[in-house]
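Q: Second attempt. The first request was missing the SMILES, so the protein and magnesium ion are both included now.
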Amino acid sequence: MRRINKTFGAVQALIDVDFKLQPGEILGLVGDNSAGKSTLMKILTGAYQRDSGDVLVAGKGTDFRSPHESREVGIEMIYQDFALCGNMDVGQNIFLGRWPRRGLFVDRKKMYSDAGEVLQRLKVDVNSVYQKVESLSGGRQQSVAIARAISFEPKVIILDEPTANLSVMATERLLETMLELKKHNVAQVIISHRLQDIFAVGDRVMVLKRGRHVGERDVSQSTQEEVLRLIVQGDAEEKTQAK
Ligand SMILES: Nc1ncnc2c1ncn2[C@@H]1O[C@H](COP(=O)(O)OP(=O)(O)OP(=O)(O)O)[C@@H](O)[C@H]1O
Ligand SMILES: [Mg+2]
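A: Got both inputs this time. The predicted holo structure:
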C-alpha cells in the first residue's frame, strides 16, 4: 500500500501511510487507540475506500470495492467484533454464504463434517458444530471467526485484536496456528496491543500514531520497550537522537 490517505469528516484517520507485507511474513501492526490500524486494514480488504494512494497485490494495482472482491484474491480479515451471525450455529457460520449444496438443498451433513474438520485442524475447542454462536463465550466466538477465515485457504490473513478475548491457553493455540500458517507461506497481519504476542510470533512490527506511519522494526532486532516508545512518542525521540 502506498501513500494511503483516509478521512472521516474532519478526522484524518490515515496520512500518507505506506504498508508492505511479504508471503509467509507475520507483521505486527500496533499503535494507540484510534491510530488508524483497523482503518488501514479495512482499506486493504475493500471494506473501506481510500481517499488516495495505491494498493498493489502481487505487483498489480487493485481497487477492491468490498471484502468479497479481496477474498477472490485470497485476503481474509477477522474483524475486531468478529461479524458472525449469533442466531446461527457454528457450522452455518463457518460456511456462511457458501453452504454446500446437493441439488436444491443445503448438504447439512457435509457442512457439519467439513466444519468439524476445520475446527479440528485448528485444534479449536468448539465442542459442537451445532451450537448457536451467540451461546458461545467471546473467546470461542473468536475461534469460530478464525476457523471461518482459514477455511477459505487465504494467502493473507488479517487478525484485528485476535487475543483480546482469549484465555492464556487459547492465545497459545492461536499463536501456534499462526506459526503453522506461516509454514504454508500465508502472510499474516496481527493488530494487537499485546506486544508480547507480536514478539512471540512476529517477524516485523509497524507502528502507527495518529494516522501516521512512525516506525518499523525487525522483531529480532528490537525490544518491546523500544516499540512501546514508538507507540507513545512516535519517532520524535529518534529525530532528537539523530541530531
Ligand atoms: N466508519 C467510521 N466512521 C467515522 N470515523 C471512523 C470510522 N472508522 C474509523 N474512524 C475513525 O478513524 C480513526 C482511526 O480509527 P481506527 O478504528 O482505524 O483505529 P484503531 O487504530 O483500529 O484503534 P483501536 O486500537 O481502538 O481499535 C479514529 O479516529 C476513528 O474514530
Ligand atoms: Mg481497531
